[in-house]
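Suppose you are handed a protein chain with no further information: no name, no annotation, nothing but its sequence. What can you learn? This example shows the usual starting point.
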Amino acid sequence: MTTVKDIRRKVRRTQTIVPFGVGGILDLRGESFVAADIRSWARTAERVESPRLAAKLRVDDFRSAPVVPAGKAAYTSRNGPTYVRFPKWLFCPLCRAMAFWKTSLEEKDRVPTCGRCPGRPKLAPMRFIQICRDGHLADINWFRWAHSTSEGHDQRQCRSGRLQFLATPESSGLEALHVVCETCRARRDLSGISHKNILRKLGMICPGTHPWQYDSDEPDSCEETPQAVQRGAANVYFPVVHSAIDIPAPSGPSEDDPAVRSVVDSRFWPDYRERYGSPVADNFRAIIAAECGVTEEFVEAIGRRASEQVAASSPFGSDEHLSIAEWAAFSDPESVPGSKTFSVRRMRLAIAGTAPQSMQEMDRRVASVVVAERVREVRALEGFSRYEPSSGDNDEGGRLVSVDTARRAKWLPAVETYGEGIFVSLDEERLSAWERLEPVRCWTRRIERDLDASFKVDRLRDKSGPVLLPRFVMLHTLAHHFIRQLSYDSGYNAASLRERVYARSHPTDSTYPPQAGVFIYTAAGDTEGTLGGLVRQGRPPYLGETLIRLLESAQWCSQDPLCADSTGRSLANLNRAACHACTLLPETCCEIDNSLLDRTLLIGDSEIPGFFQKVLRAALLESAEAVEGS
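A reasonable first move is to predict its three-dimensional structure. Written in structure tokens, the prediction is:
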């Protein structure tokens, strides 16, 4: 029996969105590739259904990368996404000769090798490449680099393409690396290659192309200054990813039901719809229920359905639509029918009257708990930017490059993942009273001023709403510490968990209900997404203990007092008391790039009252009493 050895390069399906989606660089076994655009995807790509997300992104549908079978079947069906070798400039690790690799030199299932050296060692890719703010990616013109310091006539007139990449022992920095012409011996080291305008000074311009483009594709007219960067640098690739939780249609009576008609025809119905979600709406709901002979829950269900229909046709941000439906489903899980993709159940903290004071204080602040035994998330890649993250309509960031560089994308690459999660919402009355405190409002306005000055303002406003509320920063920080604590308690690692923060502000004339909650769920895309650890942690008494412990851990940071007293951290000063030692998470966990975080609004300090400050003080006092008692 002959064994078939599968030596093809492989990536997991979820990695075709992030981090190896269209435009992303993949380093694999000493080789370097870049993901081609979706024109290279096979027609056998699987369709992914997500109507709400498709409406948000204005595309027809989504498609998931086809799975290439293993074993012998793999050789009859090679339909995976295309990855193009990049950079094209390679060098031999033995003789140090450089070679510009062409597509015509590629051989099936073979790596590039050196033809000079015995044993044909594998060629290695050059470390530096060039990018620009318009999203273009290209090789550096190493011939021009080597001859940029030419001294004699022969060096200035040299047209040889034979180069070497030498390393000298005099230094350990970039000045020890030299690109040398084998013919005229012109040479230049790599010191200063990362300076901002070095390539333009040498006459190198951006070609306006992407490595995967066809010969028939016309290059863009690009006037941006190219920048030399290491191919593994963080600013080479900024994917723009959108996601949505699959929410089944709410259950409820038909619109033709006589009881529904009587509610809608009530003279108080317009007032109820206009003020839906506000305290005044409670009075109108009670009047309509008494007038029509139905329960208030019945009127509430009809009002919520009408609110969602308004949201679907709203001119405001599309993220608003997604958050409204998800918030409604988690706030009232009984109204949403269970399905194979969405199964939720309401829980309680179950804090007894004899419980410690810290637990009782926590119970007063937590409005509801919902465990999601099964959720489905669809994650779609809209495009990417280079050099700087895309800032939407703002011209200050990098340009968003579509996943289809030849025309408007009618569909987007996507992946669906299944998992579980915990939803926690806070008491709206206590939260609103806390937000009205002047120290809290002033502190948040300072963060908002930095947000308005940031090149990420458009994208972050899509999440926070037109006004940055104190609850958004506080709940976002809570979500990060929640994930950190769950990584200890639930058995999941932090990178397997993701957050969704429901704290968006609404326009002043909006009738949307206020939001105040977080949803922590698994999104690993494999068996680790359904271990049951989060569902267990969402049940009493585990959740209450987890919330207390996360507040205690949030009080301490190894970088204090620098972290705690910070008036601006991270990119564009969008964080306050938050750093890698205490609050920040892997990029896959956070939906807004580890921005708008502050432990102060969560636990408080001597000047600013945190929302959970009383809970933490009670917990610390109980710990001190326990130590003294022992």
